[in-house]
Amino acid sequence: MNKNQTLSQNPAIKRGNLFRSMSLRNRLLLAFILLAILPVLITGTVASLISAGGLRNEAFNRLDAVASQKENEIKTLLKVLQTNLDLISEDNETQQNILLLLQNDTETEVVNTRLLRNEIASFIEKTGYFTEAFILNEEGTIVLSTNTSQEEKIQKNQEYFIQGLTAPYVASPTYEVALSNYSILISQPIKNRFGKIVGVLAGRVNLSTLNDIMQQRSGLGETAELYLVSSNFAVLTDLQHGELSLGETYMRTEGVTSAIRNKTSGSATYIDHTDATVLGVYRWIPELQVALLAENDQSEALQASTRVFQTTVGLILVTVLAAIFVSFVVTRGITSPITKLVHIAENIAQGNLELQAEVSQDEIGVLAQAFNTMTLRLSDLINTLEQRVADRTKALATTTEVSRRLSNILDEKQLLFEVVEQIQSAYDYYHGQIYLLDDSGETLVLAGATGEGGKILLERGHRISIERGLVGRAARSKASVLVPDTSKEPEWLPNPLLPETKAEVVVPILLGDKLLGVIDMQDSVTGDIFAQDVEFLQAIANQVAVGLQNARSYAGVQARAQREALISSINQKIRGETTVESALQVAVREVGRALGGVSTKVVLKNSNTEKN
Amino acid sequence: MSKISIHLFSLFAALALFISACAGGNPLRASDKVVVQLSWFHSVEYAGFYTALEKGYYAEENIDVTLIAGGPEVDALSEVDNGNAQFGISTGDSLIIARTKQQNLLAVATLFRNNPLVVMSLVSGEIQKPEDLSGKTVGVIAPDLSTTWDVQFLALLQRMGIERESVNFSAIEDYHGANEITSGKVDAMSGMFATNEPILAEMEGDELNLIYYKDYGVDVYPNTLFVTEEFAQANPDLVTRFVRATLRGYQYAIENPEETAALALKYDETLDLEFQQEVMKAQIPFIDTGDAPIGSMDENVWNTTQEILLEFGLIATPVDLATVYTNQFIAP
Predict the structure, then answer these.
(1) What residues of chain B, 282 to 321, have a C-beta less than 8 Å from chain A?
(2) What residues in A contact B155, CB-CB < 8 Å?
(3) pLDDT of res. A460
(4) A7, pLDDT greater than 50
(5) Which of A268, A343, A392, B188 is most buried (CB neighbours < 10 A)?
(6) Nearby residues of B277 by Cβ (< 8 Å), 6 or more positions away
(7) Do B277 and B297 fall into the same domain?
(8) Between A159, A174, A248, which is nearest B257 by CB?
(9) Do A528 and A485 form a contact (C-beta atoms < 8 A)?
(10) Per the structure, how many domains does chain B have?
(11) Nearest C-alpha of chain A: how many angstroms from B291?
């Protein structure tokens, strides 16, 4: 399970870090653009939606008003049609003739059918509401029609006839095969003077009247569609968009279906027969069993809102461009110094400390300043470190050199001189000197010194009591004394011959526990002598101690050898004398020569003396 | 943990979907097998059946449908009566007659809501009304006038008070368009389907006058869909589903005539597409009259049919029409 979790979580982590993994600049860019777009997008969308909602309502209201108007016009038309049908038989003579015609028991032609037909024809032609008016007898046979080809047809099974026998009736649109058209028939009973129904008067409604009503646009827009659909979904009136083939054009849009299936009125947004999204208002007209549709393309109705939307899109584009430009400039201002700092940091990481960051006036400038300081410090630190390593190396070399020389130099004076010279030059001290402890063990005698001051002091035979000064303190304590700033040291004895002295270090020359003398180094700069200098000086001092020891023992051996050689040569000379007198003479002379020309005499005593 | 619960959730969701699919669609139930005996050779007249098959309307109703073409030698009534087919197509009058012969068949829908029979003549023949047929030579289907088409023609004449003797009958031998009229053999041809021969004749350039039987009181359904009474009683649900799918097919056919006409060629590749398309368009007003649901039948038409049969002695006594047809399987 843990394994699964890890596996499945990895991509998520990567996704979550996408933003973070972007460069600082891209992140800033993205943030700027988002910040710029969001408000425009939100306000634009809200504005579009609000205006769309308002426009939609307005469009629906307009469609509804038109639909109501058309519905009323159609209902009015139906009343007018029925009144018109009534008017056909209004005239007394016509009525008489119709009734006579329907009395089919008479074989004789009592009625001039032709005249009657013409009369009715001219009437319906005048009003234009009917294309045909006809009279059916009780059996449903057309006995007279303004369209003679229709006469004699038997309509007894037709609804308009059956219903028309009892009361005025409006038949729903029915396709008439013989006429290749939809027909709306209006019928009413014909009563004789006794009130008995003897036939039916029917009129075939002129569909163009209905068409005309529907074609009046009533101020609707270009894309508006106003039409009637029969209950079998066949379109009855002309379409603005699309061919109408009466009897073959069916319409099954959501609006039509809702009206016909549910026999209700309402409104909806749906796809129309041209595949456009429309706002539609539908009405069910029960009197005619048809649906009335008023539709308007949504795109047209919402044009204003679309414009708001387009403006929003345009604004977004402009804002994005502006945001890109501004954020580009700003992020460049922010990130390029950072990038430079990063570059410098990378250089530092690679050991290059010579680059300097540009210092601007802002926080990044402060950072750059800090960076520069850091680089400088780092550089200093490294340089100091190098200097110290060099110093130490040099000191080591000096120590080695001093010891090498010391081992070769057996002359004490030369040794001391060399030591002081070496140390002073190696450490670049102002002045160096060596004191040796005299036989009394109370006084330190200057044995070697550098510079003119040192020469004068040496000639003077400068000496100092071990009770005094820094030199004395080192001798007494047999420990090194470091005074980084002599002006702050009360025990320090200024020497007029060495006016530049500001700091001093004194180390004892010890052979085992025995003090031989001290090495004294003076510097003209305060704080420039370090503890490790003391260590090195001490190491040199130890070497010097050994050197001194060597030199002294060498001098001792040499002096004894000379003495023995002298004695031996005197012995030789004495042995060569044959007489006591001459032997004594030689002895006196040679001893006197050996002792440096002092007056020499030999006193002979008695044998007792000789025996001693 | 959240991953696991998501997996569990989707598993349950899938399970729930599967269960609801099983409950709703019932895909495990075997489909009902149904054989339909057509009244004549394959043609666009049966467009609704083709459409219901091709568009999967029968499949949606879980019915496996086989269509059997008819022909001069095939009697759809017997095929259904003896159980070779469950559904058949025949004329309304034949069902009334069958009832008197103890074939208990029940019409459950009609393909055409109007009688398409016409007397066809050339405009130049000036035969506009039945009375114009007096003294003319009229083509008939059978020399002895025994077919339903001839009986209906005689009924037309009778209703218009035209003496049978005033008309010369001549059995039609060439059914191609108006050939027999243009050749002068006859003045008019009776028993023509407005959705067939006149279409061909007009396509060939003839200008025609058509006298519709239905306009003169001869209202007979020419192609009713029927089952045995027993079958309808035993399988009311299946009949309802079959009728629903078939009428849905016809509804689609009349709204998409050209597309549907092409389907007929799948069943008989020798058919002429252009002709089938014209026929399909001509059928529309017969299938859908606009004033009532397609497929539905009118009592008056059945009454008229029975009257004609009685008039011509084809049945001795009236039958209860309620046993011959029903609209109960047609959705309002």
Answers:
(1) 284-286, 288-291, 294, 298, 300-301, 304
(2) none
(3) 87
(4) no
(5) B188
(6) B44, B257, B258, B261, B262
(7) yes
(8) A248
(9) no
(10) 2
(11) 5
What is the predicted pLDDT for the residue at A426? 78
Residue A303 pLDDT exceeds 80: no
Residue B328 lies in a domain: no
Question: Residues A191, A232: one domain?
Answer: no
- Which chain A positions have a beta carbon within 8 Å of B288's beta carbon? 175, 232, 234
ipTM of the prediction: 0.81
Q: Cα(A509)–Cα(A519) distance, rounded to whole angstroms?
A: 7
Cα A459 to Cα A425, A453, A500, B178, B179, distances in angstroms: 22, 10, 21, 165, 167
Whether residues A538 and A414 fall in one domain:
yes
Which of A3-17, A374-388, A469-483, B100-114 tops mean pLDDT?
Answer: B100-114
Q: Tell me the CA distances in angstroms from B30 to A279, A348, B59, B63, B85, one per residue in order.
A: 45, 83, 11, 9, 19
Q: Which residue of B has its CA nearest to A231?
A: B290
In this structure, the answer to whether residues A95 and A171 fall within a common structural domain is yes
- A534 and A417 in a common domain: yes
Tokens of residue A64, six digits = 């509804």
Q: Select from B191, B216, B241 the last residue of a domain.
A: B216
Q: Find out whether B287 and B225 touch, Cβ atoms under 8 Å.
A: no
Query: How, if at all, do strands B63-68 and A130-137 pair?
Result: unpaired
Q: Which residues pair with A134 in a beta bridge?
A: A145, A202
Q: Where are the beta strands (DSSP E) in A197-305?
A: 197-205, 225-230, 266-271, 277-285, 290-297
User: Are B281 and A5 an interchain contact pair (Cβ–Cβ within 8 Å)?
Assistant: no
Residue B192 belongs to domain spanning: 117-216
Q: Is the predicted pLDDT of residue B62 greater than 70, yes or no?
A: yes
Cα A14 to its chain centre, rounded Å, is: 15
Chain-chain contact of A175 with B212 (C-beta, under 8 angstroms)? no
In this structure, are A474 and A593 located in the same domain? no
The strand pairing partners of A517, in sequence order, are A436, A509
Q: Is the pLDDT of residue A597 over 70?
A: no
Nearest CB neighbour to B300, from listed A157, A174, A247: A157
Q: In total, how many domains does chain A have?
A: 4
Contacts of A48 (CB under 8 A, 6+ apart): A305, A306, A308, A309, A312
Is residue B140 classed as helix, strand or coil in its secondary structure? strand
- State which residue of chain A sits closest to B214, comparing Cα positions: A154
Give pLDDT, residue A15: 52
Q: Are residues B121 and B91 in the same domain?
A: no
**What CATH number does residue B48 fall under?**
3.40.190.10
Residues A588 and A475 grouped into a single domain: no
Q: Is B19 inside a domain boundary?
A: no
Q: Decide if A374 is inside a domain.
A: no
Return the percentage of chain B with pLDDT > 90, whole number.
84
In a domain, A36, yes or no: no
Of B154, B187, B216, at which residue does a domain stop?
B216
Provide the shortest C-alpha distance from residue B104 to chain A (in Å).
Answer: 26
Rounded Cα gap, residues A544 and A234, in angstroms: 132
Domain contains A353 = no
> CB distance A234–B290 less than 8 Å?
yes
For residue A191 the two structure tokens come to 């009563």
What 8-state DSSP symbol labels residue A154? B
Contact at CB, B290 and A182, closer than 8 angstroms: yes
Query: How far is the alpha carbon of A373 from chain B, nearest alpha carbon, in Å?
Result: 52
Average pLDDT taken over every residue of chain B: 90
Report whether pLDDT(B15) > 90: no
Query: pTM here?
Result: 0.63
Sign of CA dihedral B264, B265, B270, B273: positive
| A169 is a domain residue | yes
- B185, B248: one domain: no
Residues B77 and B95 placed together within one structural domain of the fold: yes
pLDDT recorded at residue B29: 66
- Residues B281-320: pLDDT tens digits? 999 999 998 888 999 999 999 999 999 999 999 999 999 9
Same domain, A531 and A457: yes
